[in-house]
Every structure is written in structure tokens, then in C-alpha cells.
Amino acid sequence: MEKPINKQTKIAWQSLEHSSHIKKSSDWFWALWVVAIGAVIVSFYFGNVLFGIIITLFAITSGMMVNKKPDLHTFEISRKGVRAGSLLYPFSNLESFWVEDTDYEDKIIFRTKKTAHTFLIIPFDSINTDPEIIRDFLLDYLDEEELEEPLHQKFMEFLGF
Asked: N or C: which end of the chain has fewer CB within 10 A?
């Protein structure tokens, strides 16, 4: 039996930029500042003032950004490429993809051709967006490769970022 031709020109949905937002308690902020101040003291002790300044800026920025609620973004896959909000990632800049449909989180992981930003992770809602339709659409443009979320991404989610 032949597979029907996909006449769909694009797939679009809205989703939060990440689903792991948890409001942080005051204990979380205390721990952040205890670790940051300890690291700054150690860096000053070893004469690395610049590293101490960078740690301080990181702690301030993290403290300000951690309770920011995730924004609702529009995602779209079309013949032009993958659009996340206002950014378009053409298929020529992407190598492969993997659709991860689990009980707790649904996401598409793309491997990019860039050296610094090697993965693009886009969340989707499998209730409103069928993962098989996404997979079939992407197979026309990219290779499917079993990809995992990078370890540093999982670590940042574990910390609550």
C-alpha cells in the first residue's frame, strides 16, 4: 500500500519555551549566594579577580532570571525550515532530527551544523500536535537520528533554569 502524499505545507503550534518552571524558594537563593560568595572568596584568594567578578555577575543574573515565567512561543515547521518565535532555522543549517514523545515531555531535538550551538530543542504538545505527522514531514527534509538532550541542558533543568 502506498503512502499518501503529504499535501501539508506547514505544521504550527504554540508552546511554552520550557516546561520545567518551578518557583524557587528563599532557600534556593541562599544556596546560590553561599556557593557564589564561596567561589568569589576562593578566586580572590588565588588572585583571579576577573573570575570573581564573572561569578558575581552570573549569580546576579541567575537570581534575576530564575523566577521569570516561560514565554509562550509559536513554533512552525514548513518547507523553508523550522521557526521558533521570530527565528528561522533553514533546513540547510540542520543535520538531523529526533522526535521524543514521552509521558512527561514532548520535544523535537535537531542537530545543527553550527559548532557552538549544536542542538536545537523545540517543545510540542502531543495532544494537539501528532508526533507522527511531525516526523513524516521532517523526513522529507532531514535524516532521522536518535538524539539525546545534551547533559548540560539536563543539568540546567535540574537546577531549575
From this structure: N
| pLDDT (tens digit per residue) in 98-117 | 998 777 778 899 999 988 77
Q: Which long-range contacts (CB under 8 A, 24 or more apart) does 128-134 make?
A: 128/13, 129/11, 129/13, 131/99, 131/101, 131/106, 133/8, 133/11, 134/11, 134/77, 134/99, 134/108
Q: What is the pLDDT of residues 78-93, one digit of tens each?
A: 999 999 888 999 999 9
The domain spans of the chain are 10-17+71-159, 26-65
In this predicted structure, which of 34-48, 104-118, 133-147 has the lowest mean pLDDT?
104-118
What is the architecture, at CATH level 2, of domain 10-17+71-159? Answer: Roll (2.30)
